[in-house]
Design brief:
By secondary structure, the protein is α+β, with helices and mostly antiparallel strands. The protein contains three helices and six strands; from the N terminus they run αααββββββ. A three-stranded antiparallel beta sheet has the order 1-4-5. A three-stranded mixed beta sheet has the order 2-6-3, with no helix packed on it.
Amino acid sequence: MMRTLKYLKKMAKKNKEDIKEQEEIQDQVDNVDVQEENTEETIELSKEETLEIELKESKEKFLRLYAEFENYKKRTIKEKLEMMKNASQDLMKALIPVVDDFDRAKKSAEDESSEEAFSEGVTLVYNKLQTTLANKGLKRMESNGETFDPELHEALTELPVNDDEMKGKVIDTITQGFYLNDKIIRHAQVVVGK
């Protein structure tokens, strides 16, 4: 019985503590309500300021996104134009050896000691091919007499020269270089003077 009495006292004490805690919590809630009523006007002002700040941030984000999108559009248009401009690159690379062979045949036919002649019809076909390729953006690289440039030329060999002006310059072109729309598609293979 003693134990139950102690237990009941303990429970009563605990209930009193719980009631005190609840009263303290209620007092705090009441204080917060009073503070909210007092600061309602200041909250409205800060809400307006907050909305203005959010509006400015939203405008900045929009402008950044708009600028990024415009840059993206310009970049993709530029890439498409570049792709269209150089779409025939593989075809031109495949035709260059044919053009080389045609050039060698013409040069051989024009040699006085040659028995073969380049007929007028073949000359017309040759000229038409050259014109068509030029219209599509294929251009020959002029190398002879130019200063050697490793970005344009591929040096196959160097030959000693007597003339100091020809040192470091292209003496002879073994294989012609070509541009396609100002982009190198084949480097010229050259002999350089040293």
